[in-house]
Write a structure and sequence with these properties.
Layout: E1 2-12, E2 18-29, H1 45-53, E3 60-65, E4 68-69, H2 75-80
Length: 89
């Protein structure tokens, strides 16, 4: 099971200011089920996936995988536990 608790992400937009991309996301994904995340361009889908994978570090909240807090684990440590990310290209 993958669980996000109050996960937020703020990113710099290149001109010195910040933008909140994800705000207080609570999400529970059960093992053995298939999920699809849909929404408009700029809606945060890719950012959510990158936070789960560890490419982006959330600015708030925690991420749990099979009951283990993985929020501070590296990409490598997450992949060793079975979490992967496939880029579009």
């Amino acid at each position: 099971m993958l669980e996000l608790r109050s996960v937020s992400l703020t990113l710099g937009n290149g001109n010195g200011s910040n933008k909140e991309v994800l705000s207080q996301i609570d999400l529970t994904l059960e093992e053995g089920k298939f999920y699809a995340v849909t929404g408009p361009n700029g809606g945060g889908k890719t950012s959510l996936a990158k936070v789960i994978m560890g490419i982006y570090q959330p600015t708030a909240g925690r991420i749990y995988y099979k009951g283990e807090d993985i929020t501070d684990l590296s990409i490598t440590e997450r992949s060793q536990r079975g979490i992967a990310y496939a880029f579009q290209q």
